[in-house]
Amino acid sequence: MTTQTTAPENTGTPAPGDAPGLIGIPAGLGRALATGGGVLTVVSTFLAWTWTAEFPGDLTVYGYPGGLQVLVLIAGALTALFGLASYGVKGLRWLVPAGADAALKFAALAAFATTWYTVVAISTKLGGVVNLEPGGYIAAAVTLIAFLGALALPFERPEPDPFDPDDTGWDQFKHTSSQNWQTVRAAFASKEPRPVRTLPSYVEILVIVAILAVALLVFTYGIGTEYDELFIGFLIVAGFGFAALHRSGLIAHATEITARHQNITVCGGFIAAACFPFTQSDDQYATLGVYILIFATVALGLNIVVGLAGLLDLGYVAFLGVGAYAAAMVSGSPSSPFDLHLPFWAAVLVGAAASLVFGVLIGAPTLRLRGDYLAIVTLGFGEIFRITANNLDGTSGPDVTNGSNGISSIPDLKILGFDLGVAHDIGGFTLGRFANYFLLMLIITAVVVLVFRRSGDSRIGRAWVAIREDETAALAMGINGFRVKLIAFAVGASLAGLAGTVQAHVTYTVTPEQYLFAGTTPPNSAFLLAAVVLGGMGTIAGPLIGAALLFLIPNKLQFLDDYQLLAFGLALVLLMRFRPEGLIANRRRKLEFHEEAEAPAVLSKTGA
């Protein structure tokens, strides 16, 4: 018997290496347009974009980028670098360990979005596109060309899913929309980055120093944005720029290098944070810095309860209030019912101890509950604390907290003769009141980070993770679930009280309305929980970054007025939709939410 063979029929489907891009431009031409557009974007920032200085940032100067032009310059430079790296230019291969195409698309998108936002903002504020100078038109055109060129780059398209011919029109529309979305996601996806080659220790330490310096520069620039348009532009460039660096594989390489030197990275991070007050000319932004640190420290304490032990606590801000009230009562305030003025170290111990006691008293009868029932009980505790503090005014109850007026006129701290309420000159730099408290709060944050790291790596930390993953299995293996959860509750409460002692002195006044379940201004229980989930549960850096974003962004979005919470909530919904594991996720949670992720060979005790 003979078998007849025929040549395969050409279906017109391109080979994997010749897969088309999202738009019908040849890949070679698209790459040239993206790279050239990035270079021309950089050039366009040195031109005037408008004729009048009424638009913030003074975009009228030739040869000197200002305001939003600086952000477009950065995005254009990234686009040009990734474009050159995609050609295999010698010396740039290290920029794209996971491939250049996806990174080039995000960088071009950052330049395009920032430029067109600036053009629209100028037209809206000044009354039409006639207020644009040629530089503005050139920038808008070249960024659009660069972005379209980047979209023409080839990528591996997902296999289409067949649909049932009997489906209704709506079902077919949903199927087609889902398929198109998967195609878009594949267009912006990247490959696994190649392994980092081992470098000499001193080189890796220098890389860590450079990473921390860039992080300090980005944070300082973001917190110092002087007007609304600049901050929104900063968010656009920071978001898409980070995505570009992530798709290029640089973030993965940086993570691997810092993981090899964890202690150096942590110490370097605190040194970089300590340099922040010295970069400020006044106390305006140091104020935001100290409040961010207070918020972040409390969020890190909550991360022990929620992230490690898996206990949903909706009244955690009450422990911050207990610590603040306890410290205020023994710090010499004339509104305090106790005629005490203890030194700082004693007030810290009193605040932490008071929160610890309340944590044990609340946790002992409630921690036998699980899930939603525990959440409801903790929510009730938070409200009971606020209402009780409001009623202890001498009329509805004993005069302990001075009711809704709170405890006011809390004196500034004096530590070893160093008055934190007075400006001091150090090395030619003037540190104001909030800068002094920033440095103090940084020390307390370091203590909380140390407690988190040591407890997470201890036997009790492994028991917390076991309870979080499967309480029934943990109990079957001999773990005393109630005792372990009570320890987590007590430790988390004491850390919140520790931050509360500093908060009382920073704000001068402690009132019940500062400790709500939800509100427009953090810290409150809802924002604290959002900071942990947004940043990444069970990690150290996650709650710190989440708290910084949740405090800084609402503060900068005040121009939205009544729509502030709407925009903020929409951003959280989108983030949880596309990155539910958080910004800084440990490997275990990443595998839980993304089944297609590659399973690690080894998981640490906390899954990091």
TrEMBL record:
UniProt KW keywords: Cell membrane, Membrane, Transmembrane, Transmembrane helix
The keyword Cell membrane is annotated on this UniProt entry: yes
Membrane topology field: Multi-pass membrane protein
Matches recorded under InterPro entries: ABC_transp_permease (IPR001851), LivM-like (IPR043428)
Location(s) in or outside the cell: Cell membrane
Annotated transmembrane regions: 32-51, 71-90, 102-123, 135-155, 201-224, 230-250, 262-279, 285-307, 314-332, 344-364, 371-389, 434-452, 486-506, 526-551
Keyword presence, Zinc-finger: no
Pfam families: BPD_transp_2 (PF02653)
Domain of life: Bacteria
This protein's name: Branched-chain amino acid ABC transporter permease
Organism: Streptomyces hyderabadensis
